[in-house]
């Protein structure tokens, strides 16, 4: 299982390229997403590709204060 992390912008970009160019994202199973508002629609879109996107909250001064888990139910991740 491969996991990654980034902003909603980066996750959206990955999904857009996969849709447009047929890029295989099947090895990407989890994606910690934060640093900006995370829409439930983005979490659902990632889920349609088998990617469990889940939120993280932090700050510049202290990187990660709270985070979800890819095993959390959709409502909690979104």
Verbal overview:
Helices cover 35% and strands 24% of the residues. It contains 3 helices and 4 strands; from the N terminus they run E-H-E-H-E-E-H.
User: Strand order within the widest sheet?
Assistant: 1-2-3-4
Instruction: Tell me the major beta sheet.
Output: 4 strands, mixed
Approximately what portion of the residues adopt beta-strand conformation?
A: 15-25%
Principal-axis shape: globular
Number of E-state strands: 4
Q: What structural class do you assign from the helix and strand content?
A: alpha/beta
Q: Fraction of residues in helices?
A: 25-40%
End-to-end CA span: 21 Å
Rg value: 12 Å
The low-pLDDT segments are: none
- The count of helical stretches stands at 3
Mean pLDDT reading:
87
Q: Report the order of strands and helices.
A: EHEHEEH
């Amino acid at each position: 299982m491969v996991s990654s992390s980034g902003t909603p912008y980066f996750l959206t970009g990955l999904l857009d390229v996969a849709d447009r160019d047929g890029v295989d994202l099947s090895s990407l199973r989890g994606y910690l997403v934060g640093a900006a508002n995370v829409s439930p629609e983005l979490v659902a879109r990632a889920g349609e590709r088998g990617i469990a996107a889940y939120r993280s909250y932090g700050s510049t001064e202290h990187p990660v204060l709270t985070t979800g888990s890819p095993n959390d139910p959709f409502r909690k991740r979104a």
